[in-house]
């Protein structure tokens, strides 16, 4: 379950970063100040995804899986 949550967090973060990148014609964030909250949220989601991935790896190592 933690692997699934890690993947969903990573996907959500990458969607946020993609929407802020300006690659597409999406005009979600009107100014630079409006991009601060999604940027911080994306960083938090990526850190959470890495943490969940590491917890799952350590849990498997302890059990000998």
What structural class do you assign from the helix and strand content? Answer: mainly alpha
Number of strands: 0
Tell me the radius of gyration. 15 Å
Helix content: over 70%
On the 0 to 100 scale, the average pLDDT is 80
Q: What separation lies between the terminal Cα atoms?
A: 16 Å
Please tally the helical runs, counting DSSP H or I stretches of 4 or more residues.
Answer: 2
Name the beta content range: under 5%
**What gross morphology would you assign?**
elongated
Q: Can you tell me about this structure?
A:
By secondary structure, the chain is mainly alpha-helical. It contains two helices and no strands. α1 packs antiparallel against α2. The longest helix has 28 residues. The radius of gyration is 15 Å and the shape is elongated. It starts with a helix and ends with a helix. The model has no long low-confidence stretch (mean pLDDT 80).
